[in-house]
């Protein structure tokens, strides 16, 4: 029995060694493909633009489901998205990633992710844990993502959920309080935290942004598109808290829904509470008009509105017709 346990404990280390070798091989293959022009970086013909650059209060890139893995072209595609952001010349205030940073939850993939994020040169990087990140080794990966978030933000976060203010606007990041396969577990303590932070963040009429990997139940085509694709048992409690306040934007990933009419759900029209589904970046998507990998969103905050724009960051191209403007209440 003791020998079996010892072997099991060695599996993560062996996996990391194998993946490191595969990553070295892929780097060699990518070098050849780049040299012969088989693959290229993002286009610079359609750079990111803001509605009103002189009067924007906050500009943020929001991605989800990067699914970084060292066995394919995926890390290079993520680097292309970072390059597209930098090509814009816009000084973005934050980069959000709504979970499933890695495909396998392995050390090699996270190191690739951190290397790419360091190239972004964005001051504030906020990360949420996703089911792919934590469902194998919850404690280790949760701690690792928290530690990296602290290094990016200069904070002392010690839980998978936290809030962070940027230029007077509050961002609340949710995370599962225990290990589950697909869904999340949101503890009573986390629910209380979200409620308290939203009360503080919205008291002066400013919008607040809540990021969670999993969507609320019965939104964005659930349960038809995925029977087990929502937050889980605490979803109704989360939604009740969100709808208490005005000008709240709930951002989720997880569904790999692409970009289409289901990308937006109005949770409470009177209070201006919305749910925005972020497409998968690191995989092709399953629904919608745009299905390719490399998709994401950026949003702009003004005195009286918030503007969301979907984009193909990998290719460096705008997605015609997918800009949404929300007037603040």
Descriptive notes:
The protein has 329 residues and is of the alpha/beta class. The protein has one domain (41-327): Purple Acid Phosphatase, chain A, domain 2 (4-Layer Sandwich). The protein has helices at residues 2-35, 74-87, 107-120, 131-134, 138-153, 188-202, 235-242, and strands spanning 58-63, 94-98, 124-128, 162-166, 169-173, 208-212, 248-252, 264-268, 273-277, 295-301, 305-312, 317-327. The strands form two sheets. It has a six-stranded mixed β-sheet. Strands 4-5-6-7-9-8 form a six-stranded mixed β-sheet, covered by helices on one side. A hairpin with a 4-residue loop joins strand 8 and strand 9.
First-to-last CA distance: 63 Å
By secondary-structure content and strand pairing, the structural class works out as alpha/beta
Main β sheet profile: 6 strands, mixed
Q: State the name of the first-level CATH class.
A: Alpha Beta
Counting DSSP E segments of at least 2 residues, the number of strands comes to 12
How much helix is in the residues? 25-40%
Number of domains: 1
User: What CATH architecture would you give?
Assistant: 4-Layer Sandwich
Average pLDDT for all residues: 91
The sequence of SSEs as H and E is HEHEHEHHEEHEHEEEEEE
CATH superfamily grouping: Metallo-dependent phosphatases
The largest sheet has its strands arranged as 3-2-1-10-11-12
Q: Shape from CA axes?
A: globular
Compute the number of helices.
Answer: 7
Uncertain stretches: 1-9
């Amino acid at each position: 029995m003791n020998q079996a346990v010892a072997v099991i404990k060695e599996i993560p280390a062996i996996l990391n060694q194998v993946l490191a070798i595969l990553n070295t091989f892929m780097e060699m293959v990518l070098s050849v493909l780049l040299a012969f022009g088989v693959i290229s970086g993002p286009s610079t013909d359609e750079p990111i633009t803001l509605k009103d650059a002189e009067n924007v209060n906050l500009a943020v890139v929001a991605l989800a489901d990067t699914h970084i893995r060292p066995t394919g072209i995926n890390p290079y595609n993520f680097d292309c998205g970072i390059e597209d952001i930098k090509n814009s010349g816009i000084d973005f205030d934050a980069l959000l990633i709504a979970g499933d940073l890695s495909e396998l939850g392995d050390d090699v993939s996270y190191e690739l992710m951190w290397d790419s994020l360091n190239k972004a040169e964005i001051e504030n990087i906020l990360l949420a844990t996703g089911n792919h990140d934590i469902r194998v080794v919850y404690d280790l990966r949760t701690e690792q993502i928290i530690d990296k978030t602290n290094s990016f933000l200069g904070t002392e976060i010690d839980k998978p959920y936290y809030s962070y203010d940027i230029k007077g606007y509050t961002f609340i990041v949710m995370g599962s309080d225990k290990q589950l396969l697909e869904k999340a577990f949101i503890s009573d303590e986390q629910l209380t935290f979200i409620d308290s932070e939203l009360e503080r963040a919205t008291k002066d009429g400013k919008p607040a942004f809540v990021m969670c990997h999993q969507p609320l139940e019965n939104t964005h085509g659930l349960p038809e598109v995925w029977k087990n694709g929502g937050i889980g048992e605490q979803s109704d409690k989360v939604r009740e808290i969100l709808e208490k306040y005005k000008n709240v934007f709930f951002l989720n990933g997880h569904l790999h829904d692409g970009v289409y009419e289901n990308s937006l759900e109005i949770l409470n029209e009177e209070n201006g509470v919305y749910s925005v589904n972020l497409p998968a970046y690191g995989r092709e998507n399953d629904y919608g008009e745009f299905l390719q990998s490399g998709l994401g969103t950026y949003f702009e905050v003004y005195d009286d509105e918030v503007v969301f724009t979907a984009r193909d960051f990998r290719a460096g191209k705008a997605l015609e017709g997918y800009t949404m403007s929300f007037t603040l209440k």
